[in-house]
């Protein structure tokens, strides 16, 4: 029965996952500590120079990349169950409870992945500022006037304001410099008006000329809805950054119910005459639009305007447009560490003199890590149903 419950738990957990289905997977390394190493390749530039006859070593390229280390973390939850369950319909009742725990575990993992994706691993874009012309969007390059570190970015061209820096999303977008693909959140300004600090340290100190993008949610309201035009912009950036498509040729996106509602009202979305068949709905696929496959979000990511997580009341909704190899995680399937735990009522401890209560819980391991912030566009919007 334990094997049966483990299978029910994992099946329900995996059925309820969305983001985890889109990440690169790696098995937990047995007997090799608590870290997992992922490897992300740097882009390989092509060449338009023809080689001459017999030039067997011309146009040599260098294949390079970066090892990205993640620490394996354990996640767990439990609840009591009583002797009455054991004496009546234990299997039936416990199966239902196991499914509930599977869904809860999935939500926990999806939140871990969403934090990594939206706050550490994506290029931010405001739907009300696609052309980067407001106070709350900034693109520039790092300079070395005050030294170079892995957490403090210096740029003489900026003028510090609270609205620009507090909780802003940050991503390195230039391919030819250090820390390409790195993302983070901005926490504060530095000692001068020409610097700011990010929460997640980059692998190396920043180099002069590194192009970065910084966007904060200040000013986003319910009126700044996700539209077909903003999706089209996100797709254009995905193609510009040469996102790898998923099997089937699609980029992936997940929608909250509120942002889905706004898209359903949008003329661009309605006018796209794409047939939605039953098999797509059964797989949780909402629609295909301009090369993007839309799914329901199991954990819609919402923030306050200062970048603080607020999944129930945040006015800023984050919608990902993802390519392959944006993130990685350890595999759930076939791992002994991911399981449901059942303790039957009994006299194991003096805390239970009447043998009334047992416990049920789960545990699983994860090592979620952003591999390439440049392979996910974070469309930051409001929603019409949110005051």
Summarize the structure.
The protein folds into two domains: 1-44 and 64-134 and 220-387, phage-related protein like fold (Alpha-Beta Complex); 137-215. It is 22% helix and 29% strand. The protein has helices spanning 2-15, 83-87, 90-120, 162-165, 228-240, 257-265, 267-271, 278-282; strands at residues 24-26, 35-41, 65-71, 73-82, 123-126, 137-141, 152-154, 169-172, 183-189, 195-198, 211-215, 251-255, 285-289, 292-296, 301-303, 316-322, 327-330, 339-343, 357-366, 369-370, 376-381.
Task: Summarize this structure as a short list of keywords or feature phrases.
phage-related protein like fold, single chain, 22% helix, alpha+beta, seven-stranded mixed beta sheet
Description:
The chain has 387 residues and is of the alpha+beta class. The chain has 2 domains: 1-44 and 64-134 and 220-387, phage-related protein like fold (Alpha-Beta Complex), CATH 3.90.1690; 137-215. It has 8 helices and 21 strands. The protein has helices at 2-15, 83-87, 90-120, 162-165, 228-240, 257-265, 267-271, 278-282, and strands at 24-26, 35-41, 65-71, 73-82, 123-126, 137-141, 152-154, 169-172, 183-189, 195-198, 211-215, 251-255, 285-289, 292-296, 301-303, 316-322, 327-330, 339-343, 357-366, 369-370, 376-381. The strands form 5 sheets. Strands 5, 12, 13, 14, 15, 16 and 21 form a 7-stranded mixed β-sheet that branches. A 6-stranded antiparallel β-sheet has the order 6-11-8-9-10-7. Helix 1 (2-15) packs parallel to helix 3. The longest helix is centred in the N-terminal third of the chain and has 31 residues, at 90-120.
């Amino acid at each position: 029965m334990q094997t049966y419950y483990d299978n029910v738990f994992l099946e329900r957990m995996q059925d309820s996952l969305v983001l985890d289905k889109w990440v690169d997977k790696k098995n937990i390394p047995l007997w090799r500590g608590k870290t997992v190493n992922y490897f992300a390749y740097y882009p390989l530039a092509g060449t338009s120079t023809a080689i001459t006859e017999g030039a067997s070593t011309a146009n040599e390229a260098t294949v390079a990349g970066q090892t990205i280390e993640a620490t394996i973390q354990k996640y767990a939850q439990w609840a009591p169950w009583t002797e009455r369950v054991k004496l009546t319909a234990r299997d039936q009742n416990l199966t239902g409870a196991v499914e509930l725990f599977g869904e809860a575990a999935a939500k926990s993992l999806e939140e871990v992945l969403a934090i990594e994706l939206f706050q550490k691993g994506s290029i931010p874009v405001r739907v009300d500022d696609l052309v980067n012309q407001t106070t709350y969007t900034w693109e520039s390059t790092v300079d070395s006037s005050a030294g170079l570190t892995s957490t403090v970015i210096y740029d003489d061209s900026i003028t510090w304001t609270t609205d620009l820096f507090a909780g802003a999303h940050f991503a390195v977008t230039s391919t030819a410099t250090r820390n390409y693909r790195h993302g983070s959140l901005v926490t504060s300004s530095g000692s001068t008006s020409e610097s700011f600090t990010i929460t997640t340290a980059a692998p190396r100190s920043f180099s002069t000329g590194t192009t970065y993008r910084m966007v904060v949610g200040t000013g986003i309201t319910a009126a700044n809805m996700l539209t077909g035009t903003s999706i089209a912009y996100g797709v254009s950036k995905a193609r510009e950054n040469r996102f790898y498509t998923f099997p089937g040729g699609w980029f992936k996106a997940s929608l909250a119910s509120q942002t889905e509602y706004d898209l359903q009202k949008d003329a661009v979305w309605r006018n796209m005459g794409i047939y939605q068949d039953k098999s797509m709905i059964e797989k949780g696929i909402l629609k295909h639009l301009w090369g993007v496959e839309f799914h329901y979000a199991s954990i819609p990511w919402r923030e306050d305007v200062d970048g603080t997580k607020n999944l129930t009341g945040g006015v800023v909704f984050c919608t990902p447009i993802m390519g392959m190899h944006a993130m990685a995680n350890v595999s759930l399937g076939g791992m002994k560490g991911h399981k449901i735990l059942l303790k039957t009522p009994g006299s194991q401890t003096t805390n239970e003199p009447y043998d009334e209560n047992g416990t049920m819980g789960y545990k699983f391991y994860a090592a979620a890590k952003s591999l390439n912030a440049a392979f996910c566009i974070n469309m930051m919007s409001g929603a019409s149903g949110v005051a």
